[in-house]
Amino acid sequence: MSPTDLCYTPATKLLPLIRSKKLSPVELTKAVLGRIERLNPKLNAFCTITADAAMKAAREAEQAVMKWKKLGPIHGIPFSIKDLNFTKGVRTMSGSHIFADRVPDHDAPFVRRLTARQAHFRIADRAHLRLGFWRHLKTGCLADFLHSIYGMLDAAAVLSDAIVC
After folding, report:
1. 0.85 exceeded by the pTM?
2. Nearest-CA neighbor of 120 among 165, 155, 47, 69?
3. Quick one: how far is CA 108 from the chain centroid?
C-alpha cells in the first residue's frame, strides 16, 4: 500500500493490518508525517507537530505488536488533538497568540483516556483552530475566495480532524 493510500485508509481497516503484522505502526506514522510535511506549508492545519514523540511511540507500538502483547483498541493508530485541548508538556495556544507560551502540566481527560487505552501516541498535537474563522467564512469579505478554494479547506479538515490523514 502506498503512503498516500495509507493516509486515506480508515482506521477500522488499518487496525487488523497492524494486529496481523501486515502493517507496521512505524510505516503508518511515517506516511502520515510525510503527508503533513508536504501539505501543512500550504494548508497550515497544524501549529505544533510532535514528530519525534510520534516516531518513538510508533516504535514502541511496533515492539508491542511483535511481542504479541495485549493491544489497546486503537493501538498503533496515529491521531491529532485540537489546539484547544491540553496535552502535558506540549504548547497549547487555543487558537490565540495570547497563549503562545502556555505549556500545560497535565493532559485533558480524553487525552488521558486515549493514552490509558494504549493508543500510545499522537502524530501531531495542536491541530489549528482559529478564533472567529467560521464567522468570517460565511459572512466576511473572504467568503467568496474561501468558497472558491473549498477543496483546500476540505483537505485541511481532513488533515486536522481525521484520526489518520
Report:
1. no
2. 69
3. 16
